[in-house]
Amino acid sequence: MKKSIHPDYHAITVVMTNGTEYQTRSTYGEEGAKLQLDIDPSTHPAWTGGNQTLLDRGGRVSRFNNKFKGFIGG
């Protein structure tokens, strides 16, 4: 590797929303820095399967459903 063109890669502590911590290596901050997460896999609906609603604004969802009705699954 070429010298002085790569970012500093060092150990940091990641703090999850529930307070648990783990060590990882990153270019974030400086050696020993703490990265406090606002969203993590234990709280985000994409990972937890939370309730997600599909809003139909101006009939867009209805038009899409009518256009592709019967396209997949009969």
Outline the structure in words:
The N and C termini lie far apart (56 Å). The protein is elongated and about 60 Å long. The model has no long low-confidence stretch (mean pLDDT 83). It has a three-stranded mixed β-sheet with strand order 2-1-3, with no helix packed on it. By secondary structure, it is an alpha+beta fold. The longest helix has 8 residues, at 60-67. Helix content is 16%, strand content 20%. It contains two helices and three strands.
Which features characterize this protein?
three-stranded mixed beta sheet, 74 residues, alpha+beta
Give the tally of β-strands.
3
Please describe the biggest sheet, giving its number of strands, its sense, and whether it closes into a barrel: 3 strands, mixed
Percentage of residues in strands: 15-25%
- Write down the secondary-structure element order: EEEHH
**Rg from Cα:** 22 Å
> Which spans of ≥5 residues are poorly predicted at pLDDT below 50?
none
The helicity comes to 10-25%
**Spatial strand sequence of the major β-sheet:** 2-1-3
* Average pLDDT, all residues: 83
Number of helices: 2
In whole angstroms, how far apart are the ends? 56 Å
